[in-house]
Each structure stands twice: as structure tokens, then as C-alpha cells.
Specification:
It is built from eight helices and no strands. By secondary structure, it is mainly alpha-helical.
Length: 181
């Protein structure tokens, strides 16, 4: 944490290599978020680069009381939502990216349970593709990144009650679609 703070201060003083350290430290979480939101490796790379460019240009507005990674994810999620709205299409979740650990099969599971779990994951991924961008962002930040309601609200510049509502509606929409299938 002290090293991160030092890099931020050095970057604010114009040290581009210090900002490079921040990029290397957080490029994976930012890319993972953009990939899950946009569904395309090429678009995700572009969005991740744009996120870091925006972060560099807005670094002076960073509030050190917030976690730096949450600030970056906020920039990334807003950028992805804007891109999706411009395209006027629902986001696509990649079937190639790993799922959260709680969704993965263990080595001790029998093969038929592994197959069932994989089938269930595919259904969940297809349903996630149908969620509106704001709902999907909340779901990804909650279940992939484990952020609290407060952290998601800060990241998406929303309120905790709005996040709780989005997550509730998203879970209900997903449950209805999964039951219908």
C-alpha cells in the first residue's frame, strides 16, 4: 500500500515510470473487468488502455481515501457501459475466462458432477449476456471481484440502495430465465 501511494505521488509529479508500475500492478483486474463487460479480447484491450489513459489524465482527481483499484475499476466500468450503450447491445460474457472460485469444480468431484457444473456455468453465462449493462456491472463487481455494496456504489458512482436494487433485480431476472430454460 505504501508503495502504491508512492507511485501515485511520483506519477502526480510527472514520473511516467511510476504510473507504469501502477499499470503493471492493475492491468489484469482492469482487463478482466473490461473483458467480462465487453466480451471481446480486442475491445477489452482497447477499453483497458483507454481506462489507464483516462486514469493518468485524471490522476489529480483521485481521492486517496478510496482504494486505488476501486477508482480504476470505476473508470473501466463507466467506460464499458458507455461503449455498450453506444453499440446498443447487451454485453457478452466470455466463455474463455475463468469463473469465480466458488463456481469452479473441485478435483474431488465425480465426472458427472463436473459435467453438470459446466453445463450450469454455461447457462449462467448466457443469462448474464442478457442483463442490462448497469446490472451486469454490479453482478461482475460483486461476484467476480467480491466488492461490498458500498464499494460497488463508489465504483459505479451510485448509491448502496441502487446497487442492492440492481443486484436483486439481476438475480431475479437470472432466476426467471434459468427456470424458463
Amino acid at each position: 500500500m505504501d508503495q502504491e501511494r508512492a507511485w501515485i505521488e511520483q506519477a502526480l509529479e510527472g514520473d511516467r515510470s511510476a504510473f507504469g508500475h501502477l499499470v503493471r500492478a492493475y492491468e489484469r483486474p482492469v482487463y478482466n473487468l473490461t473483458y467480462r463487460m465487453l466480451g471481446s479480447p480486442t475491445e477489452a484491450e482497447d477499453a483497458a488502455q483507454e481506462t489507464f489513459l483516462r486514469a493518468y489524465n485524471k490522476l489529480a482527481s483521485y481521492d486517496p481515501r478510496r482504494k486505488f483499484v476501486n477508482w480504476l475499476l470505476s473508470i473501466a466500468s463507466h467506460h464499458c457501459i458507455d461503449r455498450l450503450r453506444r453499440k446498443k447491445r447487451a454485453p457478452q460474457l466470455s466463455l474463455e475466462e475463468p469463473l469465480p472460485p466458488q463456481w469452479l469444480a473441485s478435483d474431488s468431484e465425480p465426472p458427472d458432477q463436473v459435467v453438470d457444473r459446466k453445463r450450469d456455468r454455461e447457462r449462467v453465462r448466457r443469462v448474464l449476456e442478457t442483463l442490462p449493462p448497469d446490472y451486469r456491472a454490479a453482478v461482475v463487481l460483486r461476484y467476480w471481484y467480491g466488492l461490498s455494496y458500498a464499494e460497488i456504489a463508489a465504483t459505479t458512482e451510485s448509491t448502496e440502495s441502487a446497487i442492492k436494487s440492481r443486484l436483486h433485480r439481476a438475480r431475479r431476472m437470472m432466476a426467471e430465465q434459468l427456470q424458463a430454460a
